[in-house]
Amino acid sequence: MDSDSARRSGLSWILSGTMMRSTVPRRRPLSVLGLLLCCVILTFYTLLLLSLTVIVPSPELGFPGTSLETSFPVPSPEIPPDDVQIANSTAEMPRRKMKRALCATVEEMGEAFGHVSWKESLRVRRLIRDHFALHGASRVRDLPPEQFCKQGFVIGKASQAGFGNEVYKILTAAALSIMLNRSLIIGQTRGKYPFQNYITYTDHSFTLGEVKHLWRKNDCVGEYGRHLDMRTDDFEKPAETNVLCSNWRKWKQPIIWFKGTTDAVAAQFFLKNIHSQMRKAASTLFGKPGYLQSRPNTFGELMRAVISPSENVQRAVNWTLMGGPEPHITLHMRMLMNKSPKAVKSALSCIQKSLFINHLQVPRPRVVLVSDTPSLIKEITTKLKEFSEVVHFDYNLFNGKISKGKGNDLRQSELRVKDWGPAPRWVAFVDFFLASQAKHAVVSGAQRRVGTTYAQLIAALAAANQLGENDTTTKFSFFSSFQSNLLRNGLRNQVGWGHVWNRFAGPLSCPSQPNQCALTPVLAPAWWDGNLQSPIPRDIRRLEQYGVKLSSFGIVDEKLLHSFCKSRRTIVKTIQVTQE
Predict the structure, then answer these.
(1) pLDDT category, 412, cuts 50, 70, 90?
(2) Helix (H) or strand (E) holding 256
(3) How far apart are CA 179 and CA 389, in angstroms?
(4) What is the pLDDT of residues 478-534, one digit of tens each?
(5) pTM surpassing 0.90?
(6) How far apart are CA 226 and CA 216, in angstroms?
(7) Is the pLDDT of residue 10 over 90?
(8) Cβ atoms within 10 A of the Cβ of 195, count?
(9) Containing H/E element for 300?
């Protein structure tokens, strides 16, 4: 008690003293030094608060397409201002999600492809048309000898293997002829074009035999000393290819053959070529690799200009449509002789979503059904008929020339039945051109890998078919249907450069996703510059063989690529086509 009383009395004494001192009025002038000190303290706390609330991205940990200097798309000559505005609005959202979750679902990745720049596709269509008007066979073959002997050519050669891979070889040659301002040659084997009985090729192209004849006729060797040499470059041989290190526009050989171009990737590698002249030529045709929202439908427009169905195939397509209207949607199921209830359920749900997104208010939309697995056709047809009219080519009921074996030069290999299906090979061509009639959407589903080269080309040609000459409001969509078991490890199993989702298969792809129905690019990307793109370790190692150091988020080390190109030995392989 005594100690408590002492503490209370002491506290009273202190307070009373303080109160007494506070009652004494004192006036002190405000010091200038004190005012400055207060300002410094206030500024320090303000900066401290700001540093705790604002997150500045680190360039070492930046996401694809993001840096401190260029965080958002800016206008460039190749991209219309309208498309840049779209790119800005759609690019900001994925960055916020990436900071929050560090990964994305396939549907979130596909959100960028809801805004397709059909203006860019029409620009590329005009570019292709102008190119063939200047370098097409009808004009070039009539040039005077002095001019003809200076003409350059690009040859595209294909075998009669898988449809998608072989057609990409022809389309890549067409694309390269545009980039290099050369004429197009479509190679023949024993006097026949690849798939000649099923595909008709443009008359803008030459055959190698015709070029050899004209070379002799114009005496290019004797009069101008120019031999008909062919320079070859193999994309599938990274140690030898010059796709990144050489300026192909300066090559002097009359003919160039770019080999091993079995998908959409090879031609787009020129987007990273160290020579600005090649990069500009490639971006004019394919758009900027980082602007996924505003890239043109390049391969669709090339197909529209270069190939078309043969008369017999077109007759089979017309027979299947039975004079009815254009189908609304195409469903392509690559099942490899498997029947997966999960894949079917996911695909049906994806068709419903595509109907909703495209605002199709028709009682029974027409749906083209294409698959490599006949047993799946019967199962899925029953379910599709509950809400749609199913269009399917039944080759057993078709009574045309190709069904009777007349002119049918394709043989089904027993080793490839699981890959291509048990149907006769020619059926794939009817299915392809039938599927490309879709008016509003193409849906790709699969047992393992979604968006194969075959499905990509269907969607690309269908989109090009639906784009009118002055139409910039076409609503066409390409969807990928993923059942949940395909996404257990995210998109990591979408390996292979020919698959459209391979460039999204890295660490930014979330594992354990539910069923996904994702908007898909009609031009499969070849690089990882876009938001939410990231490579798998396998592709990082593969790019090293080309001299490209790729970060885990897909950023290319440009300086290292230049150093690699300067230090490597340029390999030149040529074939002399004529001996005269």
Answers:
(1) low
(2) strand 255-259
(3) 43
(4) 999 999 999 999 999 999 999 999 999 999 999 999 999 999 999 999 999 998 999
(5) no
(6) 11
(7) no
(8) 25
(9) helix 298-306
Angle between helices 374-384 and 341-357 (to 10 degrees): 50
CB 97 within 8 A of CB 108: yes
Q: Which long-range contacts (CB under 8 A, 24 or more apart) does 496-500 make?
A: 496/449, 497/263, 497/265, 497/526, 497/539, 498/164, 498/165, 498/262, 498/263, 498/264, 498/265, 498/452, 498/453, 499/449, 499/450, 499/451, 499/452, 499/524, 500/450, 500/451, 500/455, 500/456, 500/524
SS3 string of 543-561?
HHHCCCCECCCCCECHHHH
Radius of gyration of the chain (CA): 31
Taking each helix axis from N to C terminus, what angle separates 163-180 and 276-286, rounded to the nearest 10 degrees? 120
Among candidates 368, 367, 372, which has minimal Cα distance to 335? Answer: 372
Q: Give me the sheet containing 255-259, strands edge to edge.
A: 183-186, 153-156, 255-259, 229-234, 573-576
Tokens of 552: 């885990």
Q: Where are the alpha helices (DSSP H) in 155-198?
A: 163-180
In 3D space, the residue among 289, 309, 271, 298 whose CA is nearest the CA of residue 125 turns out to be 298
Amino acid making up residue 26 = R
